[in-house]
Amino acid sequence: MRFTVTSSNYPRFSINHNNGLLLSDDSYPGDNVTALNTLYHSIKYPSKFSLPVVQKTQIPEVHVLKEVEKMYPMLTQEFIAKNVDKVNNLANPLKHRKSNQ
C-alpha cells in the first residue's frame, strides 16, 4: 500500500505554482516553488487516515484515454500528427541518456 500526501490535484484543477501569484497577475504563471507538505503523527499531533472497504464492483471504471481527451481537447489526431516529431526529438535524448546508465 502506498500513501501519498500532495498539495496538488492536477489535472483536475489548474497547477498551483505555489508562488502566491493570482491567475490575473501579469507575471502569472511565474516560477514554480516546490511545496513542502508535512504530516504530523505523534501524541502531540495525532493524525489518521481512513480507507473504506469496497468491492471491486463498486469502483467506477475509468477509461484513461477518454479522460485525457476530456482534459486536453486540443490533443486532436491532427495536432498529434503535426507535433509528433517535436515530441520524439524531446524524448530521444532521454532515451539515449537512460540507455547509457
Characterise this structure.
- The structure is a single chain.
- By secondary structure, this protein is mostly helical.
- The protein has a domain at 56-99.
- Helix content is 31%, strand content 0%.
- The chain has 2 helices and no strands.
- The radius of gyration is 20 Å and the shape is extended.
- It starts with 63 loop residues before the first helix and ends with a helix.
- The mean pLDDT is 76.
How would the blueprint of this fold be written?
Elements lengths: L63 H8 L5 H23 L2
Uncertain runs:
none
Distance between the termini: 30 Å
Based on CA atoms alone, the radius of gyration comes out at 20 Å
Number of helices: 2
- Main sheet summary: none
Please give the share of residues in helix: 25-40%
Give the tally of β-strands. Answer: 0
Q: Structural class of the helix and strand makeup? A: mainly alpha
Question: How much is the average pLDDT?
Answer: 76
H and E string: HH
Strand residue percentage: under 5%
Q: Globular, elongated, flat, extended or rod-shaped: what is the shape?
A: extended
For this entry, give a set of tags.
2 helices, 101 residues, mainly alpha
Quick take:
This protein has 101 residues and is mainly alpha-helical.
